[in-house]
């Protein structure tokens, strides 16, 4: 099994991080922990072949008999994952969603049964979602599982890059955008953060470009560019 996992993961990014991500998720599933070991955030800068990782992760978990539910914040991202739908669709959240919004899932519905059976949620483009979306999902999972535990004792794997698109909040200023970030959520401290670093789109000898892109996303060039870099820097470096 190890060789099979290794061959798939390293085909797209020959770093040990990808194996660690898979085995940490599998270990959390086996021990059914209610601590931070059940919540993960995989930081995936542009070019790290995250779609290949998502698909390998999903199929490997399913091969091990783990019930998964892939979701994504955007419909385009959901099309890249096996049997995935948007967060709105799977959890029946209203559009637009507000800080006081809750799920409209009805008790004893087929959606409730599907969520109850799910052991691992894999959520792509999570940084695009406001923090209160994760809170609404947390409330829903606690209610469905009838337990007062983080995310209903489910394993939650978030992925994305805070250097890219942040939550879209109408007329929001800098402080409001930061407050809406997942990193400002009360649930964020429960997540173990893991990092993918190798850019798979650059050719040998182009490592300098990869490092430049990361610095750009970190807001290290804010003196040369716009105030937008300063806002992004507050989230990506927090």
Describe the overall structure.
There is one protein chain. This protein is an alpha/beta fold and 238 residues long. It has one domain: 3-Layer(aba) Sandwich (Rossmann fold), CATH 3.40.50.300. The protein contains ten helices and six strands; from the N terminus they run H-H-E-H-E-H-E-H-H-E-H-E-H-E-H-H. The protein has a six-stranded parallel β-sheet. Strand 2, helix 4 and strand 3 form a beta-alpha-beta unit. Helix 1 runs antiparallel to helix 3. The longest helix has 15 residues. It starts with a helix and ends with a helix.
Outline of this structure?
This protein has a single domain, classed as Rossmann fold, CATH 3.40.50.300. The chain has 238 residues and is of the alpha/beta class.
Average of pLDDT: 78
CATH class: Alpha Beta
**Strand count:** 6
CATH superfamily: P-loop containing nucleotide triphosphate hydrolases
How much is the radius of gyration in Å?
A: 18 Å
Strand content: 5-15%
CATH topology: Rossmann fold
The shape, in one word, is: globular
Give the fraction of residues assigned to helices: 40-55%
Low-confidence stretches: 1-6, 8-16
Number of domains: 1
Known CATH architecture: 3-Layer(aba) Sandwich
| Cα separation of the termini | 37 Å
Structural class of the helices, strands and pairings?
Answer: alpha/beta
* N-to-C SSE string, H for helix and E for strand: HHEHEHEHHEHEHEHH
